Amino acid sequence: MHDAPPDPTEFDLIRRIRQRAAGRDDVVLGIGDDAAILDAAPGRQLVVAMDTLNAGIHFPLDTAPADIGWKALAVNLSDLAAMGAEPAWCTLSLSLPERDGPWLDGFLDGFLALAAAHGVALVGGDTTRGPLSVCVTAHGWVTPAAALRRSAACVGDDVWISGSLGDAAAGLRFALAPGEPAEDDERTRAAVRGLRDRLDRPTPRVALGRALAGRVHAAIDVSDGLLADLDHVCEASGVGMRVWAGALPCSPALSETVEADLRRALQLGGGDDYELCFTAPTALRDALGELSLALAVPLSRIGTVGVGERVRVIDAGLDQDGPEWVPPRRGYVHFDPDPDPTPDPARERD
Amino acid sequence: MHDAPPDPTEFDLIRRIRQRAAGRDDVVLGIGDDAAILDAAPGRQLVVAMDTLNAGIHFPLDTAPADIGWKALAVNLSDLAAMGAEPAWCTLSLSLPERDGPWLDGFLDGFLALAAAHGVALVGGDTTRGPLSVCVTAHGWVTPAAALRRSAACVGDDVWISGSLGDAAAGLRFALAPGEPAEDDERTRAAVRGLRDRLDRPTPRVALGRALAGRVHAAIDVSDGLLADLDHVCEASGVGMRVWAGALPCSPALSETVEADLRRALQLGGGDDYELCFTAPTALRDALGELSLALAVPLSRIGTVGVGERVRVIDAGLDQDGPEWVPPRRGYVHFDPDPDPTPDPARERD
Question: B150-331 has which fold?
Answer without folding.
Answer: Phosphoribosyl-aminoimidazole Synthetase; Chain A, domain 2 (3.90.650)
